[in-house]
Write a structure and sequence with these properties.
- The longest helix has 19 residues, at 33-51.
- Strands 5, 6, 7, 8, 9 and 15 form a six-stranded antiparallel sheet that branches. A five-stranded mixed sheet has the order 11-12-10-14-13, covered by helices on one side.
- The protein folds into two domains: 6-122, DNA primase, PRIM domain (Alpha-Beta Complex); 139-238 and 259-292, Alpha-Beta Plaits (2-Layer Sandwich), CATH 3.30.70.3300.
- The protein is built from six helices and 15 strands.
- The protein starts with 5 loop residues before the first strand and ends in a 7-residue tail after the last helix.
- It has 299 residues and is an alpha+beta fold.
Length: 299
């Protein structure tokens, strides 16, 4: 097949044209665009509930992970008429509203993947039937980012400390890998929480742990403070921020995935000091779903 060949196809009754299926997107492994689209087709039944009704930011890599990339928030002008869009006001007074794509079905997911959208990022709120956007937060999130000299192993230690605090508040956290270097904790929220309250709570936990464990924890984004420490990024709890979607591929040397994990796996990674225990490629994630189901189904 010619690498630039375009192929008309139909996905669940929607007409699409896909192209460049033989193009290598991950040179280190030879993983192609066609394999990337195939992954998203196969993971769609599990992934779509986590992105449905959420404005989508796509990170597109037209020439694969070793080439330039860009974040795409606005729905492309050439998108099919059946791609759902939602207009979200900017949180900054001088910025215009953004017409986001909303990926809630398989045809739209395949369309987006064909645009070389390797990564998908979503906010912590959803559209639903709300007339006022952004909506309230659905989750509190802690993005644990290892600084130089640390790995996801140290993130596991910090994750354990966070869950100890949350347990005293009768809250449960669900871990997933970022698919890159770190670990993320999602905490479902009940009632009608406000963004300010959730952000304040997350910041408070980060500051508490920084005070108790200054040798390993930092809550400030300054790079100079992050050597040999894990950043607890509490600032993600903001309506304008996004986190990588559950089951999204990442633009790493290998086609790794942001993957839900069990607390037993977190403990195993920590005890063995083996960061490879919490790194999963596309094929491994599909096997995990078949064996374990969706570990994030409850949220």
């Amino acid at each position: 097949m010619s690498p630039d060949r375009s192929i008309p196809t139909t996905v669940e009754g929607r007409a699409l044209t896909i192209s460049n299926l033989d193009k290598v997107f991950y040179p280190a492994s030879g993983f192609t665009k066609g394999e990337m689209i195939d992954y998203y087709v196969r993971v769609a039944p599990t992934m779509l509930p986590h992105v449905r009704d959420r404005p989508m930011t796509m990170r597109r890599y037209p020439n694969g992970v070793d080439g330039p990339s860009f974040y795409a928030k606005h729905t492309p002008a050439h998108s099919p008429p059946w791609v759902r869009q939602v207009t979200v006001p900017s949180t900054a007074e001088d910025d215009a509203a953004v017409a986001y794509s909303v990926i809630g079905d398989l045809p739209t997911l395949v369309w987006a993947a064909n645009l070389a959208a390797i990564e998908f990022h979503v906010p912590l709120w959803h559209v639903g039937r709300r007339r006022v956007l952004p909506g309230p937060p659905d989750h509190m999130v802690f993005d644990l980012d290892p600084g130089p000299g640390t790995t996801i192993v140290e993130c596991c230690t910090v994750a354990r400390w966070i869950t100890d605090i949350l347990a005293r508040r009768r809250r449960t956290a669900y871990p997933k890998t970022s698919g890159s270097k770190g670990l993320q904790l999602y905490v479902p929220l009940a009632g009608r929480p406000t963004w300010d309250k959730v952000r304040e709570d997350a910041h408070g936990i980060a500051i508490t742990l920084e005070r108790e464990h200054p040798e390993l924890v930092v809550s400030n984004m300054r790079k100079a403070s992050r050597h040999a420490r894990v950043l607890i990024d509490w600032s993600q709890n903001h309506p304008a921020k996004t986190t990588v979607a559950t089951y999204s591929l990442r633009a790493r040397p290998e086609p790794t995935v942001s993957t839900p994990v069990t607390w037993d796996e977190v403990e195993s990674c920590l005890e063995d000091e083996d960061r490879r225990r919490l790194s999963f490629t596309a094929g491994e994630v599909l096997e995990r779903i078949e064996r374990l189901g969706d570990l994030f189904a409850d949220i």
